[in-house]
UniProtKB/TrEMBL annotation:
This is CxC1-like cysteine cluster associated with KDZ transposases domain-containing protein. Pfam families: KDZ. InterPro entries: KDZ.
Amino acid sequence: MPSFPPSDEPTLDGDCLSLKNIELVDIFSRKRVSLQPHPSHQYPNETLIHHGYLGCSPLFPTVAISICTLAAYRQAHRTCPRFSIQAQCKALCHLHNIPYRPYLNAQFSDAYDIYLEILHRVDVLINQALNRSSPNWRLLNCCPCCFYKLEDEENLALDWLVTMDGNNSLKRWTSSTADGTARKDSRRFRSDYWLDRSTVDRFKDEVRGQTHPTADIDNWQDVEQTDTAPSFTCVDRWRNAGPEQRKRMFSVFDESGIFIAACRHRFILLACDMVKSGELAKYPLAIVDRLLTVYGKNGGCAYDIGCAFAKTLGNSTLGPRVTTGMSRAISV
């Protein structure tokens, strides 16, 4: 994907909008061509997309990348998130037998961002046409076995059953660790899988208010027994494992892992980032809050520390809803 000197830049003819001398990049080939647009085309990228390519700039593209190449990278990146755009550009350079240049990353990245935006807008239109655009449509329909009801079907002991847990294998260093300056990222997830940080942080003081002010905030499960919380024999013996140094270690990561909820058929329902911490109470509380809102009462939640979490849940602001809505938190 080399760039060209100014004299070789493709020109846009004002009368016929023809693209001349533009570089077309595919997985196994690269070539310079001149393209003639359809009479209805108003912009260069309309002509390029008609031929299966996407330009690296909106009005005067010098390089265009094939849709097949962008689609192949998307699937490779989904399979291996560590496979970066830089690695993809280097691979293309090897295939095309040309030297790698850093500016190729920017060209590929610009085209790839537009490609993802096109896919997103197409998905939105498809969901609207299929009447799948309601806020909780995916949660209510992602697992037919769990959430579809048949006529004359007998009532189950639990209308819905999910499992949830955290994992700290997906970490991202905070910028301050490398003496860098953090750049604000105003982008928001457009997926309904994720609970954002503001939603999760609504529950950050739920346990701290129930415990002694000097208590370790990571020992969120150790709360005082109340009349509203169920009694479990194993709770008093449980303590948050791990030395103090390990608990403080999470502060060096901007994201220290993810916390997810899945149905018993292994469909992912919800997820949230664990931010600069281990597995705190606010993450399962935020998950349970959304589950109760969407699925309603008579549900069950399996959690590896379910006995202790049941006390935390009962003492939180979700306690009244759990008493009348959620049957139990099951320890597994």
